[in-house]
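Please supply some protein, with C-alpha cells.
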Amino acid sequence: MLIFKYNLKIRDMKVLDVKYGIEITRPWNPAMYKHNEEVATQMKRNLEEALNKAEAEDDRDALCELAKIVNGYGYSEDFTIGEIWEETLFALDYKVENWWLHREYPYAVKKGFVPALEKEMIGYK
C-alpha cells in the first residue's frame, strides 16, 4: 500500500510551461514521459539508419563518430567496423538514456548524420 503514499496528483505538480499541448511539470507527469518516449523512438530509429548506412558503406570515420554520439566514447583501430557497428547498435537498443539522446542528437543533426525532428524532448533544461 505504500505505492499510494507517493502517488502525486497532477494538481499537486508545479506547471512550468506548456509545449506541444503538454504541461511541463515538476515532477514530470505521465504525458511528458509518453511524449519523450515517442521522440526517443524516432531518434533511435534515425540513428540506427545512420549506423546501418555507415556500416554498409564501410565508412569507419562516420561509424566512429556515430558511436561517440551513442556511447559517449570512441573506438581504436583495434576494433573492426563490424564490432563497432554491433556494439553501438546494442547500446542504442539497451543502454542509451533519453537524457543522453536529448543532449547528443542535435550534434548528430549538425554533423548531417540524421534529420532534425519536428518535436524535441520536453522537461530537460
User: Anything to note?
Assistant: The mean pLDDT is 92. Helices lie at 2-5, 30-56, 60-71, 81-94, 98-110. The chain has five helices and two strands. The chain has one domain: 2-110.
